[in-house]
Every structure is written in C-alpha cells, then in structure tokens.
Amino acid sequence: MKGIVFAGNSKIEYLDFPDPTPGHDEVVLEIKASGMCGSDLKFYRAPRGEGLKALGYNDAPPVVAGHEPCGVVVAVGASVNPKRAYAGQRAMVHHYRGCGACPHCSTGWMQLCDEGVKEIYGLTGHGAHAKYMKCPASTIVELPEELTFETGAAIACGTGTAWGALNRLDLKGDQTIAIFGQGPVGLSSTQLAHAMGARVIALDVSEERLARAQELGADAVINPLKDDPVQAIRQLTHGLGAHASIDASSSASARKQAVQCVRTWGKACYVGEGGSVSIDVSPDMLRRQVTIIGSWTFSTVGQGDCARFVADRGVDVDALFTHRWGFEDAVQAYQLFDKQTSGKGVFLF
What we know:
The chain has twelve helices and 17 strands. The protein is α/β, with parallel strands linked by helices. Strand 14 (262-270), helix 10 (281-284) and strand 15 (291-294) form a beta-alpha-beta unit. It starts with a strand and ends with a strand.
C-alpha cells in the first residue's frame, strides 16, 4: 500500500509500505477517515527527522503520517478478546502505545506510560494516512453507530483533547468559560462547552476563526488585536471574570491572559503544546486562589465518553471540517493547512 509521509521542509511523499498483518494482540483497520492535526505541522515543517530528534528519536525510518484514525476493523489477532475488538467493528484509535501493564496504561492513559511511550502513531509508528493501519487491540475505541467516520477522526485527537480539558476543569452549565485560540482544538472546546450548557467567550486574532466560533456556539467573541482580552472578559462577566479558561493557542500572552481573566477561585487550563509563560504569581494566581491545570489529550475511557456524549447530544462535530480531501490531495491539503487560516481538514478513503 502507499502511505503519506512527512518528508521534511514542508514536503510530502507517497511511499510504498507492506500491507499490515496483525500480531497476536493486534488488529488492522481499514481507514475511512484520517484527520489533520495542527500538532503535526512542526514535523511537517522541520527538516527530515529533526522533529523526531527533538522528542528523543534518532534515525527513525519513514512512517505513515496521521494520528486521527477512524475506520473498520478488518483483521484481528489470535489472542484478541472479541469484547475488545472484532471484525467489522467501527472504531477509532487512541494514538499512543505504552507498555500495556503499568497503572497508567491499564487505565487507558498510554501516553503517560511509566516506561515511556513506545509508539506515537503517525510519528514513530505507522499512522492513518493510508488504506490500512495496524495497532494493539487495547488502543481501539468503538465508534457509536450514530456518528460518522469523520466525527470519529476528530474525536481521535482534537475533539477528544478538548473534551479532556473541559473535564479537567469540571465545567458546569451555569458557568462562563473563555477559550483562547479557535483552531481545531479551540473550536472543539467551544462546541462542546456550548453543548454542556456553559456560556462561551471565544478569542482569536483571526476574524474568520471567530466567525466559525460563533457558528459553533460561542456567545461572545473577542479579537485580542482590537480589545484588551482581560478587560473585555470582565466587562462580559459583571467585573468578576470567567469561571474557567482554556488556552489552546500556545501563545505566551494568551496563556498569561487565560490566568488573569478568571475570577477568584477560577481555573485556567493549558492545552496548547510548547513554549512558555511568565506570570506574576501573587496577584495573578496566589492571592486570587486561581488553579492552573495542564491537560494532555485524553484516555481511551475519555475518548469513548466523548463519543457517547457527542452521539447522545447530537453535537455536529462534522461542522468543524472546512476541507475534505482525497488521498491523492495530500500536497495541496498540507500546503493550505500550513497557513493556519482555514478550519479542520480530513482525508476520506
């Protein structure tokens, strides 16, 4: 089979790989939808191999890209419990592999494995930008019949990550949340928070993305290039500030504002990867009893809970996608995605 590979320096290659066959505890999916995630752009842009070296992987062979997999199980290893995975099952994949036995792996948090992550699909192991993908049965998460494969691909990373952050915040329907950055994860946070009944204030420097946020449920929008975000949020909350905030932008200024904009006893959750932030500890945090939380993706259990919530509440996750691409369109798709001005993209097979 052919797979899409990040060749370095913003280049895409189509390389040949053997069709996968499952080991005793593995399954093979026929991929139906494979999402594009903003976290991949640093690997797409970097010189070949340099992005992985930053993670401690040297001389890694080329792998199929894509870590938002969704499809149908077509082959099952001999030792796989049929209650876990079976042929014909509609499924997403949790895109990390750990040791499988430590307390984190056994509760579905493979990315927190005590022995370190063994594989990250789409980066160090073959991902979903190909017709087939092999993975351990323990990483399979069933896709409810009510949901499309596209929705499953979104939940497999971006939407699932938003769900994880909102649950870390313990968001309630009578609260107001400020969400900094309206890329795919931020938009997912806006959409899910709205479905939970919360009042949503969306922030971004792109008017196009702010318009998308309103379409997906934002009650108010703020462009930090035009208005002071902290003051604007306080004006919208009777001077108190938001109950909670999420930074999905990785911007140092947005991270600081995400802490400053919450009210006394408020919570700020950092989701965006990389970079740093500097805060004045006493006035910004300590003397207002503010809690700062880090949230890294989700567990297999959380992924399943997110899918069930989306299905039961009728959340239109497919509305996140602005571009749907064929397998042959990868060069054009990533060139557009690299501009970070559009919404979410997905490859359909």
